[in-house]
């Protein structure tokens, strides 16, 4: 049976987007959320937070989403945590590329804050199929 | 239990406030970026300046993301290329005049985009349909007793259907509404729907007065009763936007990697698919792999210039009608005429206005595509004609040989078509043919190649598809098509088709296309012999 998703680690470099999506995930989706401004911050916070899911912006200065994911998964106990990427204008072949990089799926930006949580949950539920 | 409706309303409110804050912050950020850019342009070109520009590039990147999120797509459209230009500039050892110019324009475009605004921060941003997510449904407002089978018919045409006899709740999204004028209060319902989606009215009254009343209620189209399926289908296609057209594909050739990618990005922001190359000698390979609708190229390149490149492209017959657009800093009229003589279609003067670039490229490419579609298509169905289909087949088989890959060819033939013509007349026969063409277009992927192969015979090439999977796809089309009723004043009938499928697995050699066609044809013949209305694979008994 599927385990309910509660703990989400979210990484997004833009403060305004982080606030909006963070609120949407907490208030609408009822998730327990750790929102980070960079890949480095995520690496610092992830071990103590024990996330069930990573939600990662792809394009970030410094460490991008796929790199962050690789390093997060190298941390003890986090090797099997599923991830969803967020990025602008996804073409079908790019979605495949992000899946190959270890993402369950891709959520395209701009996102609708009212339905963001539902999208995250739908992808989470599908992963057991 | 907490009242979830009021909780949602609260969340919506909070989100609205946050969005408003985000928009205010966008304005501040654009102002900050503009000021910082101006200050940097006054400084000498040194490491600190370049570091500052690199910092601005990051700012532009974040703006591109935030612009979309807070409902200013035009802001993103300027900020995304700005990031690229600034990154390129930060890497230059000397200040690069063209990039500085580009950056100037793009920075100004940020403010313009902000001022143009959206005014609609209450609305969620235009949500891109996520992969796998269904398109909006067609609302069918009709009394099933009065208009039986209407919902089923629209569903058979390939649309998701939502049924109702009154206005659906405000949050329900609809692609279009089909409304039966026989419903009580039909025009009042039309008025309520018209602000939300296009409305198609099915009506027995089609006189001027009735049309005027409908127009005043906001109705976009009237389809007379008794219903003509094709006419309804044409309107649904137009409104519900099952746009079959793949997006325009543009190839950009510029020896400057950053500029090439900047142009490509501006085109992508405008909804086109753009591929950029910086090595002109790769142009033929690139044309073969991306089959562009238009090539945009720099006229002055160091090793091979644009005119030479145009000459090379035009040496191939198939590329004779491919539009070529030059980017040129050149004011030299004589050289421009020389370029035109070699088939350059237009010039865009550098430094390029990226907004105008996208417009010019789109217009040219759309027109070229429309002309090509007319030249290559069958006049009744709009599908590829026999000759063009075989050409595409050869091309795809070549591509498979080069890159490895599988395709399945299906030949399909309407069953007992002659009887339809004899019993119901040729107009009905044409209608059946158009319906099958439409079913194929709707049910198959837009990358699949569909042609009208002969009178009542069609050919379909399914790319990247094994024979068994092709059978599943074709059988799905068959089930829907066979369920589609055709009506005349006196009768109602359905039509079936037979299909034969062969894949290129194990095929090789120069007569590959012919061999594949023969195999599919033999399978089609086997399907006919097995009693029609079925599919056979090559080599299957």
TrEMBL record, chain A:
Coiled-coil zones: none
InterPro entries: Bact_response_regulator, CheY-like_superfamily, Sig_transdc_resp-reg_receiver
GO BP, sorted A to Z: phosphorelay signal transduction system
Residues annotated with 4-aspartylphosphate modification: 57
The keyword Phosphoprotein is assigned to this record: yes
Keyword Phosphoprotein: yes
Transmembrane domains' residue ranges: none
Domain Response regulatory: 7-124
Keywords: Phosphoprotein
SUPFAM superfamilies: CheY-like
The protein's name: Response regulator
Source organism per UniProt: Teichococcus oryzae
Automatic annotation (TrEMBL), chain B:
Heme in keyword set: no
UniProt keyword Iron present: no
Organism: Teichococcus oryzae
EC assignment: 2.7.7.65
Record GO biological process: cell adhesion involved in single-species biofilm formation; negative regulation of bacterial-type flagellum-dependent cell motility; phosphorelay signal transduction system
PANTHER family named among the record's database cross-references: DIGUANYLATE CYCLASE DGCM-RELATED (PTHR45138:SF9), REGULATORY COMPONENTS OF SENSORY TRANSDUCTION SYSTEM (PTHR45138)
Keyword terms: Phosphoprotein, Two-component regulatory system
Sequence ranges assigned to domain Response regulatory in this UniProt record: 249-365
Recorded GO CC terms: plasma membrane
InterPro entries on file: CheY-like_superfamily, Diguanylate_Cyclase, GGDEF_dom, HPT_dom_sf, Nucleotide_cyclase, Rev_trsase/Diguanyl_cyclase, Sig_transdc_His_kin_Hpt_dom, Sig_transdc_resp-reg_receiver
GO molecular function terms noted in the UniProt entry: diguanylate cyclase activity; protein kinase activity
Modified residues (4-aspartylphosphate): 298
Catalyzed reactions: 2 GTP = 3',3'-c-di-GMP + 2 diphosphate
Protein name: diguanylate cyclase
SMART domains listed in its UniProt record: GGDEF, REC
Ranges for domain GGDEF: 405-540
